[in-house]
Amino acid sequence: MNPASPTEPGATPAPPEGPRRPGDPEGLEGPVDAPGGAPVGRRIVLGMLGLGAAGVAAAPLLQRGVDALAQRDPTGLSEALPAGGGFRYYSVTASVRPRSARTYRLRVDGLVDRPRTYTLADLGAQPQTRIVRDVQCVTGWRVPETPFEGVRLSRLLDAAGVRPEARAVRFTCFDGAYSESLTLEQARRDDVLVALSMRDRPLGHEHGGPVRLYVAPMYFYKSAKWLSRITVTDHVHPGYWEERGYDVDAWVGRSNGRDDAPTA
Prior knowledge:
The chain is α+β, with helices and mostly antiparallel strands and 264 residues long. It has six helices and twelve strands. The chain has a domain at 105-244: Alpha-Beta Complex (Sulfite Oxidase, Chain A, domain 2), CATH 3.90.420. The strands form three sheets. Strands 4-3-12-7-8 form a five-stranded mixed beta sheet. Strands 5, 6, 9, 10 and 11 form a five-stranded antiparallel beta sheet that branches. Strands 1-2 form a two-stranded antiparallel ribbon.
């Protein structure tokens, strides 16, 4: 969801199958279904943001319209506009059913010797690592100095016993659509977490909770929301937005044509 979804204002027009430049799991993350089943894409939102001075002059009217839309908008489009705290909420599916602490499960499998399924309590009982970095979306928005806390992904991989032929890790999500991947070397970095909290609170559903991936040095679309499965593989499987033209390696400031982007 939430999907790794980046697209930047002024980007090349998206091809018919989807945007070329997604945002991220917290950002403008792709099309959702309108009431009649027609896709509603990020380009609509970006068009409003691209009005420039005219858009600023029309801000009061737009705000009233957004307030009214938020009361009845089944597409979630109104949630793609800037929200409190600097984050923008969106999903690549029309809706995502929440998982509770009782029902949540995270499966670790693939090219490992000891596959395992974790409950939220299991993950919470592991040693926790806290990282404070800027959250940077490829669309341009940024939330500075944002604390995330969780289990280092490398710890779960070590517990599973990664096999010698393994080269990458694939992440899938309980929204049923979103996916992401890292090389095994990237996945073992100390700043890659299976995150359970953000801003010193348990991850809420809108932020991809109860558990999400957090890849601190990369654009936020790599930090897949609603994480449900970690599969060790023999090659990198491009993620949701990467299949639609975005970079597989999404280092902040060194990928996706954003050499001038702030570093996280």
